[in-house]
């Protein structure tokens, strides 16, 4: 009981928590959003949101990079902090530019933004490829 009320955090519990957050957020983003964008690439390439006025195709390509390529690296724990940066930027754009004024749509974006920003701050943890390499 004393341990449940403690504010102290052991190194092992921190590393397990980081692993769970990395795998959960990364897998959910990859499976529910990234793979869907890959499957329906041809349909989305001319209608994908373009909040930065770069064009529909470049916006889709940047989202795919963040949601597929970067999340695979995050789940594995390889170059975790570097790979979290494009994902955080993607979700900041989604929350603040794409979904502005639509509170119902922004909820999922805010959750992903908070999760990946936490990963950016915490790093990969011990149970990762980066941790195994001693980075």
What would a concise description of this structure say?
The chain is mainly alpha-helical and 135 residues long.
Write a concise keyword list for the protein shown above:
transmembrane helix; DoxX-like_oxidoreductase; 135 residues; DoxX; mainly alpha; DoxX family protein; membrane; elongated
Run of helices and strands:
HHHHHH
Mean pLDDT: 90
Distance linking N and C termini: 35 Å
Return the domain count.
1
Largest sheet features: none
Number of strands: 0
Helix content: over 70%
Structural account:
It is a single chain. This protein has 135 residues and is mainly α. 73% of the residues lie in helices and 0% in strands. The chain contains six helices and no strands. Helix 1 (11-39) packs across helix 5 (103-122), helix 3 packs across helix 4 and helix 4 (80-98) packs antiparallel against helix 5 (103-122). The longest helix is centred in the first third of the chain and has 29 residues, at 11-39. The protein is elongated and about 55 Å long.
């Amino acid at each position: 009981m004393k341990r449940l009320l403690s504010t102290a955090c052991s190194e092992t519990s921190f590393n397990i928590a980081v692993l769970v957050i990395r795998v959960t957020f990364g897998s959910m983003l990859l499976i529910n959003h990234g793979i869907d964008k890959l499957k329906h690439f041809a349909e989305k390439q001319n209608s994908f949101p373009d909040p930065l006025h770069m064009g529909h195709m470049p916006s889709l390509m940047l989202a795919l990079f963040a949601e597929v390529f970067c999340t695979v690296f995050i789940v594995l724990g390889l170059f975790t902090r570097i790979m979290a940066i494009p994902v955080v930027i993607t979700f900041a754009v989604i929350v603040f530019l794409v979904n502005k004024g639509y509170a119902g749509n922004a909820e999922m974006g805010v959750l992903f933004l908070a999760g990946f920003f936490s990963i950016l701050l915490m790093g990969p943890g011990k149970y990762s490829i980066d941790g195994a390499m001693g980075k």
